[in-house]
Amino acid sequence: MGDDSARRTGIALTEPQRVAWLRLIRSDNVGPITFRDLINHFGSAQTALDMLPELSRRGGAKRAIRIASRDEAERELEIAARFGARFLGIGEPGYPSALRQIDGAPPLLAVKGEIAAATHPVVGIVGARNASIHGARFAAMVARETGRAGYTIISGLARGIDTAAHRASLDTGTIAAMAGGLDRPYPPENIPLLNEICEGRGLAISEMPFGWEPRARDFPRRNRLIAGAALGLVVVEAASRSGSLITARLAGEFGRLVFAVPGSPLDPRCQGTNGLLKDGAIVTTEAADILEALQPLSRIDLFSAPDLQEPPREATRQPMTLPGEEDRTAIVNALGASPVDIDAVIDHTGLPAAAVHMILLELDLAGRLNRHAGGQVSLAMLA
Fold first, then answer.
1. Of 56, 113, 267, 273, which shows the fewest CB atoms inside 10 Å?
2. Would you state the torsion angle of the CA atoms of residues 156, 157, 159, 163, taken in this order, to the nearest 10 degrees?
3. What is the DSSP letter of 320?
4. How far apart are the first and last CA of the chain?
5. What's the Cα-to-Cα distance from 200 to each of 2, 47, 108, 312, rounded to whole Å?
6. CB atoms inside a 10 Å sphere around CB 63
């Protein structure tokens, strides 16, 4: 029971560890998957930071890798504290349980507000920015009834459906996933709403640095947070080419339930939702459709996925033998511009799995590797 209790509550990072984690994720060519591989290989963020120059050099980097300094990390932590926010590690109490299960979950989230909002099962609600009156009312009704049933509502703070979902769940708990830094909300007219969320029973989350202005290419990352944190995603209105459909696709890839509200074939805002229904999304005309489908998932242990945690300070690891140049050449020759499974690389080269993963890590840090959905990789075509 003791082990299970620790697993459910998580283990807090020490402040030196938090600084090292922030430095590592803010360093060049270190994304969430690379971060996890580095911790798994070297046991701690600090050791991984010490190894970055050597690893990137071995991977063929043409210039020294930029490593975030201690001063930079401490400054960002100070900015967060002044803003009333903090950074939450993936293995710590309060990190959204379902989000930690996805491939490439953010190792650190900037959070502001009521952490308890992330400890309840979560339902995502997304849809059109130019929502119809009926669409906004339906989103609010679903958010209100689902919230009263014990779920936290997550959405993206956008105009239209997102705004309606957030407002309707202020009293029961809502999470605003943001594309920019927590101090750079978008759109600006929803700043008062964000303040209501953070000052009440809600939470704002972001994986981006403070001061980061959201760009168009950042919103799919925001959508990934929504899809990953939720057990199910409700799409109320969505055009045939919309960010909501990206969120729905990600939710499907993560094994989440996707709900869609049918609409008039003559309304462009319903083309995307009607298309989701054709593809097998759950027809949703009332909150009961969502609650009934999600009820069996309440028995799933959301804490069963292994957390990314550093071992106790006194723990030691055996020195690791780095792969040789011949092995590295074999893997580079095996890769191309088309994504392949890492297991296929292992089978093709006949190299030990540990050596393959290490070489891929070196190539990644050197900027010579692309990572794709489903754990696939390809060789970056450098100019």
1. 267
2. 110
3. P
4. 55
5. 33, 40, 23, 36
6. 10
Give pLDDT, residue 296.
87
Q: Report residue 137 as tokens.
A: 């009312």
Q: Cα 172 vs. chain centroid, distance in angstroms?
A: 23
Are residues 170 and 195 in contact, defined by beta-carbon separation less than 8 angstroms?
no
Q: What is the pLDDT of residue 323?
A: 83
Contact by Cβ (8 Å): 69, 373: no
Measured in whole angstroms, how far is the alpha carbon of residue 290 from the centre of its chain? 23
pLDDT digit string, tens, across residues 28-71: 999 999 999 999 899 999 999 999 999 999 999 989 999 999 99
> Is it the case that residue 362 has pLDDT exceeding 70?
yes
Compute the distance between CA of residue 379 and CA of residue 84 in angstroms, rounded to an integer. Answer: 42
Token digits of residue 52: 């970055």
CA distance 270 to 272: 5
Which residues are 177's β-sheet partners?
205
Q: Give me the helix-helix angle, 32-42 and 15-25, nearest 10°.
A: 130
What residue ranges define each of the domains in the chain, with the CATH number in brackets? 2-85 (no CATH), 110-299 (3.40.50.450), 325-378 (1.10.10.10)
Return the amino acid letter for 257: L
Nearest-angstrom CA–CA distance, 32 and 9:
22
State residue 61 phi and psi, 5-degree precision: -65, 140
Contacts of 358 (CB under 8 A, 6+ apart): 41, 320, 322, 323
